[in-house]
Amino acid sequence: MRTVKEYVLEEPSLPPAQGEEEHISLALANSSITLPGGHTVDLLATPAQANHWLTARGLAPVDAGMLEMCTTQLRSLREQIRSLLASRTAGLPALPAAVTAVNDAMTRVPTAPLLHWDDQRGPYRATPHPTTAIVEHALAALAADAAELLTGPDADRLTACGSTPCNRYLLRHGRRHWCSTRCGDRARAARAYARRARSGVE
């Protein structure tokens, strides 16, 4: 069945956008990618893909056994973080629900391993590791990174890719406003075409 956007499961051959390696929340925001032709690639489309994405960033073990519910939570946080990045880059007020979602993710999990007491071995400290706890810790790490990105020194470098229809965000490096060479080439080609079109009219 075709809709306005056609979802593609395979990963695009795009390098990480500038800043993704320093900020995992930026990588999360960019995990749904709009490509030319109305195609969208969602790197979190399935629990297996979400597990792979988290594992690649050290946020979950390979065998975490992601559930659809956990994947939905991850995608939901992604949309809230994207909303905050859009507000920051456009200089607009943030949606209160997006701020609340990030704060909830940060405060839902303990900040330290909890104290446990075993009849045989006595007291010990450990972090719970059922799948839901793994995901909540991952969400907390992503939310904390988003808060740091939005309030730290990198916030002024945050920008949206300047090549339509790309929807990725990046940290500007010099005058570069594109997330990849491919987007830069496409933007330059579009500008050249627009110049030729104007010259033809004149």
Report on this model:
The chain is an alpha+beta fold and 202 residues long. 46% of the residues lie in helices and 13% in strands. It has six helices and seven strands. The protein has helices at residues 24-29, 47-56, 68-90, 96-107, 131-151, 181-201, and strands at residues 6-8, 32-35, 39-42, 114-118, 122-126, 158-160, 169-171. The strands form three sheets. The protein has a three-stranded mixed sheet with strand order 1-3-2, with no helix packed on it. A hairpin with a 3-residue loop joins strand 2 (32-35) and strand 3 (39-42). Helix 3 (68-90) crosses helix 4 and helix 4 packs across helix 5. The model is unreliable at 1-10 (pLDDT under 50).
Primary descriptors:
202 residues, alpha+beta, three-stranded mixed β-sheet, two-stranded antiparallel ribbon, 6 helices, 46% helix, 13% strand, elongated, disordered N terminus
Coarse shape: elongated
The fraction of residues assigned to DSSP E strands is 5-15%
Largest sheet: 3 strands, mixed
Determine the fraction of residues in helical runs and give it as a percent range. 40-55%
- Could you say which structural class the secondary elements and strand pairing correspond to? alpha+beta
Number of helices: 6
Rounded to the nearest angstrom, the distance between the terminal CA atoms is 45 Å
Q: Round the Cα radius of gyration to an integer and report it.
A: 20 Å
Reading the helices and strands in chain order gives EHEEHHHEEHEEH
The beta-strand count equals: 7
Low-confidence stretches: 1-10
Mean pLDDT: 86
Record the strand order, biggest sheet.
Answer: 1-3-2
